[in-house]
Design brief:
363 residues; mainly alpha; 2 domains; 3-stranded antiparallel sheet; 11% strand
Length: 363
């Protein structure tokens, strides 16, 4: 548990910076209409939850009334009668149309559509865009964050492995911080839930899963507007990996307990088999929804509390909102670790079910 205060010490300056850097974004558009301000805040929060083609840290309005964005554009890669590669800065954060050769493209709710020179987007009766959407292989901020996290994990644990090899079971440098966590995953998650006989073949996946989710959750607390684990496509991919590994490595006892449960009357076996089979799909679904919903809800609550500072617009209400937002930020650090732990524990539990061996007689 000594790991948590260490993380808090390093992340507190970042949290304060995160709270402060949101202010210019909300305050970029001065308005006396509280309804307009609430609408602007709602749109900003929903935009924050979506993936985007650039890193937007903050926005501000100059003396002339022009809005300026501070951030980093990312490469846009489209397949539209051939490869089209250009910088997302051409969109000016969705405010203008990007011209690439003879083609024009516009952003709508984070998705790129082919348009005319005026950027016209047509909608059906359900308010869905009917314009052609080219295949998008862009390096969005979610993709960049995932690649960064993967490289970070590779170099961190490559160094830890090298330290073990060189010093003989004694970690050096940053490895001293991660070694207890690795041992905890092994001794408190893998072995109790899978068993000493089978846990080793799952350790690499469980360690990757735990640190991948944890690092992404922590990066989501920075002012960069990252919300990778709040993207249901990402949590779906993680859950489907657990689903595949569980069912591919499942032993005959695992499948027997699903389709023909031993020790149960035949009539009950026929009734229970569909329920057990449904449970095979419900388990990864619950993994996907739990991580997605908790992270998304945390971001919405935190951003809403920060937004209250500008809705109250007085020292008492704004100060209280700041204190609450800061407290929630601290809690979110713990939630980042907790969600990684829960996802890993449940995955290990499912693996344990798959390889569990039973001594029984079928009656």
């Amino acid at each position: 548990m000594a790991l948590i205060p260490l993380k808090l010490k390093h992340l507190l300056p970042t949290l304060i910076l995160a709270l402060l850097t949101v202010q210019p974004t909300f305050a970029a558009k001065e308005t006396s209409d509280k309804g307009d301000l609430k609408t602007e805040i709602r749109e900003y929060i929903m935009h924050h939850l979506l993936d985007s083609h650039d890193f937007n840290i903050l926005s501000y309005t100059d003396d002339a009334g022009a809005v300026h964005h501070v951030g980093m554009p990312l490469p846009v890669i489209l397949w539209d009668e051939g490869i089209k590669i250009f910088s997302s800065s051409k969109f000016h954060h969705g405010e203008t149309v990007a011209q690439v050769g003879a083609n024009y493209y516009a952003l709508d709710h984070g998705k790129i559509y082919k348009t005319d020179a005026g950027g016209t987007i047509n909608y059906d009766e359900n308010h869905h865009a009917t314009n052609l959407a080219p295949l998008d292989f862009s390096m969005t901020k979610g993709v960049v964050t995932i690649l960064f996290t993967a490289l970070l994990m590779f170099f961190l644990f490559k160094g830890l492995a090298k330290s073990y090899k060189t010093n003989g079971q004694v970690a050096k440098g940053v490895g001293r911080f991660f070694e207890p966590i690795v041992l905890y995953v092994r001794d408190e998650i893998a072995i109790p839930n899978i068993g000493e006989k089978h846990y080793k073949k799952y350790m690499s996946f469980l360690l990757t899963l735990f640190f991948f989710i944890w690092f992404l959750n922590l990066l989501g607390l920075t002012p960069l507007g990252i919300n990778v684990t709040g993207n249901i496509a990402v949590t779906f991919a993680l859950a489907i990996l657990t689903f595949i590994i569980t069912n591919v490595t499942g032993k005959k006892d695992y499948w027997k307990h699903i389709f023909w449960m031993p020790g149960v009357p035949t009539v009950m076996k026929l009734a229970l088999a569909p329920i057990e089979l449904l449970g095979v799909f419900i388990k990864p679904f619950s993994l996907m929804i739990r991580l997605y919903a908790n992270i998304s809800a945390g971001h919405i609550v935190l951003m809403s509390l920060i937004a209250l500072m500008f809705i109250f617009n007085n020292w008492l209400g704004s100060s209280l909102s700041f204190v609450l937002a800061f407290a929630i930020s601290i809690i979110e650090i713990l939630v980042a670790l907790l969600q990684a732990y829960i996802f890993t524990v449940l995955s290990a539990l499912y693996f344990g079910f798959a390889v569990e061996e039973h001594d029984h007689e079928d009656h």
